[in-house]
Amino acid sequence: MTDYDAIVVGAGHNGLTAAAVLQRAGLRTLCLEANTYAGGMAATVELIDGFRYEIAGSVQFPTASQITKELGLDTLPTVDPAVMSTNIGESGEEPMIFYRDPMQLMTHLDERHGLEAVTGMAELIGWSHGPAKALGRFDVRQPPKTLDEMYACAANEAERRAIHEMLFGSAMDVIDRLLPDKDKHAVMCGMLAFLAVNSTYRGPYTPGSATCLAFALAIPQDNTGGTAMMTKLDE
């Protein structure tokens, strides 16, 4: 192992990026992957014979503008999809269509899921602002914050409470409080619970899972896309 200056375990999109940056910096870099393919979420794989599936290679999630520029992502042609996701429940349940345009999203929620859904979603996005700052979601080359530094990010008492809940509460503590109707809001709650557990291997009732919910809901302060949480690369 003395042949290498850096060893990256995992050749997913994060591992490949880290390995490329290290290699460009002049370090002798080895990138290891247990799967038979590289790319992770950015890969296209054959799920069954003859059926090739793009996991998420053309999906670009919110990223700090400095990183976007340094990786050259800002030079790639993109498509801003009108609909970012469609969430389907059981028979008879209204699907939740996550529109890119915030007014269209709120109109859909009002017409299909009721005014409480509009209020709950708006409060949820508002709740995420303090935690996003505390997490340093879009900080670049900064060390992780201490607990005291996280609390100091709060602009008011509401943000301080949200940061505390993000650190020690579960995703469902937040979701159930803001969207309390378990029948009418079932599809919305399912979508949000999925956001909170995606790739974490923990359930949404696990203490600390509110952190993942805040991470998923965060958008950069300079974002002009409203509720835009993803962009598609033009293939």
TrEMBL record:
Enzyme Commission code: 1.4.3.24
UniProt KW keywords: Oxidoreductase
InterPro entries named in the record: FAD/NAD-bd_sf
TM segment ranges: none
GO molecular function, one term: oxidoreductase activity
UniProt cross-references to Gene3D superfamilies, sorted A to Z: FAD/NAD(P)-binding domain
Record GO cellular component, one term: cytosol
Keyword Oxidoreductase listed: yes
Stated name of the protein: Pseudooxynicotine oxidase
Organism of derivation: Mycobacterium innocens
